[in-house]
Amino acid sequence: MRTELTDAGSGTSARVTDRTRRRTVRWLTLPTRAGCHLPIAAVALALRFAGIGWGGNHYTHPDELFMTMVAVEIRSPGSLGGYLDTATSPLNPYNGRFTSYVYGTFPLFAAKLLGAITGNDVFGNGHLPGRWLSAIADTGSVLLVYVIGRRLFGRLAGTLGAVLLAFTMLHIQASHFFTTDAMSAFLATATFALILHAGGRRGFALYAAAGLAAGLAAASKPNLLLAFGLLALPLLEAIRIGGWRSVMPVPANLFGRDDRWRSSPVLPATLLAGFVAIWAFRLAQPYAFAGPTLFSFRLNPQWTTDLAFWQRAQAGTVDLPPSIQWAERAPVVFILDNLVRWGMGPGMGIAALAGLALVLWRIVTAQSWPSWWLVGIAGWVLFHILFFGTGLGKAQRYLLPAYPLLAVLAGLTLDRLIAWARRWGRRAPRLPRWLHPGYLLPTIVVISTILYGVAFTTIFTREHTRVVASEWIFSNVPPGSTIATEYWDFGLPLALPGEDVGQYQTFPLDLYKTDSAEKLSTLIGQLNQTDYIVLSSNRLFESIPRMPWRYPMTTAYYEALFTGKLGFERVAHFTSFPELFGVALDDRGAEESLTVYDHPEVLIFRKSAAWSDDAAWYLLNDALGRGG
C-alpha cells in the first residue's frame, strides 16, 4: 500500500541504465536494498548507548532523579490482587512518600523489573535499566520510521527518514536518561506502524498488537491517550474507499445478491483494537483507577487531581518557577524555531516541515476525500505542534512523539527531490548530476544531520560540566568558604568520591521570589556573608530577565554580577558544546531543556575587594524603584 503521493520517480532505479547516473546516486540508493535498514538501526543503537553510564549517580536531570527515587522505593505486591489494589499496593508510588506522580507507570515498572533481574535496583545504579530501555526503545523508533516510510511513500523515503532519525539530536538526548519520553514516543509510533499494516488485511493479530501499543503508550505518558484515535484509521480508510456498506456485516441479499453474509473484518477488528488498548492501559497504569478489582474502572482521585494540576500549569494558571522561561515566547514560532535550529538541525527540520506542507497541500487540494493515512500522519504532527506550541510550556521534548512521523515526512521530501532530479537527468543527460538541487539538497540534509548527531553524542563522552566545576571548587576554593547557589537549580559542589562537601557552608539564593524591599534586604545580607556565587546553569539568569516588570531588581543583579559592578569577579566558566573535528557548536541559545540536563553552562564568581553592601543596596534599590 502506498498513498497517492508516490509517483514513478521513486521506483525508477531499476530502469536506469546510465552508469554515471547510477554512480552519482549510489550512496543514496544503496541503503534501500533489503536488510540495509538493520545497519542503520545498529548505528542508532551505538549512538544511544554511547556514554550510557555518563554522569555517574549525580542525577542532573530532575525527571530522571524522581523516576529513580520512585523505582528504588516501590516493591512487588506479590499477587495480581495486590497489584490492582490501588489503596495498598506497594508498587503504587502514591502509597510511599510521593504525593504526586504524573508519569506513566509502564516504563517505571519495566525498569523496576529489569533492575531486579540485573541487580541495578538501588539509588546510585537504579537509573541504568531505565536508560537501557530508553536507548532500545528509541532505536525501535528508527526502525519504525523505515517501516512507515516504506509503506506510505516507498523504500527510499523510509530509508532516508530512518537515517535522519538515527542521528536526530533530541532522540539521542532522550535516550540517555531514565524518563518516559523515549518509550512513549516509540509506543505511539508503533501504534501508527501496526495499524497502518493492519489496514486492508483480514487478520486480527495486527489490530490487537496496535491496540496493545496504544494502551502502553498511554500508560507511558497519559496525554498519549490520543493514540487511541489512530486505531480508527483503517476503518475510516475502508469507508472512504468502499463506503459504509463495505465495513458493515449485513445480509448480502438486501442489496440484490444471494443470501450469503457479506462481511468485512475492519469494523470488528477496530473494536478489538480498542478493547485491547483499554485493557492494556488498565493493567499497565493500574493506579489511574481506584480499584481494587480488575473490573473497577472508577478513576483514582489522586491521579486525576495530579493531571488537573499540570493541565493548569500548561495553561499558565499555576505560578511555577520553571514556567518563567516561557514568558513572551511567540506561539508556535518558538517551538518550531527550536525544532529546526536545535531539535533536528536546520537541514532535517526544514525537510520535515516541507514534507508536512506537501502532505497538507495534497490533502486540501484533493478532488475527493484524501487518504486517511495522510490525514492521520499530518493530524498527529499538527496536533503536537499546535497544542504545545500555543500552550505555556513549549518544551521541545513534548514534541518527541511527533518526531518519528516528522522524520518520515523529511524522508518524503528528500525522496521527491531525488525523483525530480532523476526526471531532469533523463531530459538533460550530459549535465553533471551533482549540480542538480534534487541531489545536492538531500546530500546536504543527510550529511549535516549525521554530523550534528555525532557532535551532540560527544557530550556523553566527556564529564558533565557540573562535575568538572565541582572538581574545580574542591581544588581552588578554600575550606570554610561560604558558597551561594540558586534556589530551584542544582547546588554545587556535587558530592564527589573522596571529597568532603561539608567543608563549605552553602545556601541558596531565592531569586525566583517576586522582587520587593524585603527580598532586597535578604539578598544583600546573604551576599555580605558570601565568598563565592555559583550559577550551575543558565536556568535563572536567562529566564528571570524575561519578566522585567516582576524582576527589575533581580535583572539588575545579574547585569551587575556579569559586568563586575556587584563586587564579584568571575573566576571559572565551564561549557560543553556539541563538538566534532575541533569545531564546537555554541547552543546556549537553545530552549532550556535542550542544554541544562546534560551540558549546562556553569559560572563561578568570587567576592572581590570592590564589594560594598551599601553600593550594592543602592544599585539594586534604584532598579527596584524604577521597576515599581
From TrEMBL:
Any one annotated GO CC term: plasma membrane
Superkingdom of the organism of origin: Bacteria
Cell location: Cell membrane
InterPro entries (alphabetical): LipidA_mod_glycosyltrf_83, RgtA/B/C-like
Single GO term (MF): pentosyltransferase activity
Signal peptide, first to last residue: none
Keywords noted in UniProt: Cell membrane, Glycosyltransferase, Membrane, Transferase, Transmembrane, Transmembrane helix
Recorded topology in the membrane: Multi-pass membrane protein
One GO BP: lipopolysaccharide biosynthetic process
PANTHER family: MANNOSYLTRANSFERASE YKCB-RELATED, MEMBRANE PROTEIN
TM segment ranges: 152-172, 178-196, 203-219, 225-244, 265-284, 339-360, 372-392, 398-418, 439-460
Coiled coil: none
Name of the protein described by the UniProt record: Glycosyltransferase RgtA/B/C/D-like domain-containing protein
Pfam family, one: PMT_2
